[in-house]
Amino acid sequence: MITLDGNKTAKDIKDELAVEVKEITKAGQRPPHLVAVLVGNNGASVTYVNWKVKDCEEVGYKSTLLKLSDTVSEKELLDEIERLNEDDGVDGFIVQLPLPKHIDEQNVIRAIKPEKDVDGFHPENVGKMALNLPTFLPATPAGIIELLDRYNIETGGKHCVVVGRSHIVGMPISVLMSQNHYPGNCTVTITHSRTRNLEKLLKEADIIIAALGKPDFVTGEMVKKGAVVIDVGISRVPDTTKKSGYRIAGDVHFESVSKKSSFITPVPGGVGPMTRAMLLKNTMLAYKMRTH
Q1: Shared domain check, 144 and 45
Q2: Strands of 159-163's sheet, edge to edge?
């Protein structure tokens, strides 16, 4: 069993991007600029955004954190997005999700200019991804593809079972894994809460991508020997033995599944760091599209 080390792979990507930034600034040009828009004080969102700002610093990007109150109106947020759309000094920006209930997330996503949508959520970018055209890929699916690629994991002709059908992970990764290139060329089954024969499908899978948000859901008896297992989930589980009072768990029961898998991602330290690294890659792509 080989652990797919997201921390190390993400560091490799950041090191490569840092070299590019040095070349850009040495040529007298400004570095890429990423803006993160944070609405309210959701604990997880604050943590994620702070990590993204730190990542930018590490590779030499300019980053701006725009904090808005959770009482901001949808119109006020859309006005800020329009300002960022028109700002030539901004290459890409993200609006951290989830948003307060009074704001329609789809309205916000659609308001972002596709060429600045480094999260890859705009319908135009999703359509381009589905058609296998050059575009920004959603960061988590892109991070999974990058891990498979950098570890040279064979995917052609394999049966890939995706657990979960979210627009952020499940649906896009099912498209990417089925496309006619490497990594890809899989026969993909996408499963969800209405799937009746889930355990049977998991036992048949060569590659499992679990993205449903239920801790320790996939266990060793559900997985065949030699399967590649990608765990996207991250949950806090109460644990009185920990100083914090909780432990971090993925959707996969690591202890039992790792004994049978050929490759597996840990949680934390697997897909999470890759998601952040791919946001940086998308920002570099946005910068090049704007400046070349």
Answers
A1: no
A2: 2-3, 263-264, 228-231, 207-210, 159-163, 187-191
Measured CA to CA, the distance from residue 32 to residue 56 in angstroms comes to: 9
Sequence-ordered list of residues with C-beta below 8 angstroms from that of 231, at least 6 positions apart, any chain: 210, 218, 250, 251, 252, 254, 264, 265, 266, 267, 270, 271
Residue 59 lies in a domain: yes
pTM of the shown model: 0.94
Instruction: Establish if 101 belongs to a structural domain.
Output: yes
Query: pLDDT of 87-99, one tens digit each?
Result: 999 999 999 999 9
Instruction: Kindly indicate the confidence band of residue 45, based on its pLDDT and cuts at 50, 70 and 90.
Output: confident
Given a contact cutoff of 8 angstroms between Cβ atoms, the answer to whether 253 and 235 are in contact is no
Structural domain harbouring 53? 29-113
Q: Please tell me whether residue 131 adopts helix, strand or coil conformation.
A: coil
- For the annotated catalytic residues, the residue numbers are 52, 96, 119
Q: What are phi and psi of 57, to 5 degrees?
A: -60, -40
- Tokens linked to 121: 């959520």
How many structural domains comprise the chain? 2
The verdict on 90 and 209 lying in the same domain is no
